[in-house]
Amino acid sequence: MLVRKLVTNKISRAEFDEFLCGLEDEQMVLYLESSLKSHFDAIMEDHASGVEQPEDMRNTDESPPYS
């Protein structure tokens, strides 16, 4: 719940303090890392599905060399 409020920018100061205190617990840190990664990955997938890429950039395994 606090993670959702944090990423939607709807967290109160007291809730943020509670969130920060949770960072002292190693198990909580692992949970938060997993939750935030899942959230970020979902946002990136949503974004990528809405962005058109040039035809020559789609489904290629090779990247053009940079000069």
Describe the structure.
This protein is mostly helical and 67 residues long. It has a domain of 45 residues. 61% of the residues lie in helices and 0% in strands. The chain contains three helices and no strands. The model has no long low-confidence stretch (mean pLDDT 82).
Summarize the structure.
Helices cover 61% and strands 0% of the residues. With 67 residues, the chain is mostly helical.
Helices and strands, with pairings:
Layout: H1 2-7, H2 13-22, H3 26-50
Features:
single chain, 67 residues
Please tell me what the overall shape is: elongated
Average pLDDT: 82
Residue share in helix: 55-70%
The oligomeric state of the chains shown is: single chain
- SSE series: HHH
Strand content: under 5%
Largest sheet: none
Structural class: mainly alpha
Kindly provide the radius of gyration, computed on alpha-carbon positions and rounded to a whole number of angstroms: 18 Å
